[in-house]
Amino acid sequence: MHSTNATRLETNAAQLGRARCRRLRARLREDRGQALVEVALVLPILLLILFGITQFALALNSANDQTHIANEIARYATVNENPGGAESLQAWGKKQADNGEEAKGTICISFPNGSSNPGDPVKVEFKSKIHWLPGGKTVNGALKGLTNVPITGTATMRLEQSPSKYSAGCV
Q1: 43, 111, 135, 162: which is deepest, by most CB within 10 A?
Q2: pLDDT tens digit sequence for 28-80
């Protein structure tokens, strides 16, 4: 009788083991939870692409703003006007910038031919840097070439009047 009980136990254990294997195989074949793994793998890449597109758009917007401000200052320079009153034309131009980074930039007015007679060119350059990545010294140190990218807006026009309300130089 003892051997029949042992045989039955062995048969039951074998059947339970096969049943467990079938259930395990069925679970492994299921697709539940697969989407979570795929999202976890793809999400960082998508966020990086989205961040890059956004930063590029901001840089392009800054470049367009700087070119617009340089054109505006050059136009005021050609007709010998200074809408800033007591402040310099360059300082007035920096106040027109939308972005805080642009306001940290430099605006230079120069006369490429060396003279400022009517008909001579006046050149305005608005230079600033865009910071692609926020972060401290660790991020900036690791990605030296990407953190501070120079952006320049330039405009050159012909003088209609000799300058008396502004002067060449950088602010």
Answers
A1: 111
A2: 777 777 888 899 999 999 998 998 898 889 889 889 999 999 999 999 999 99
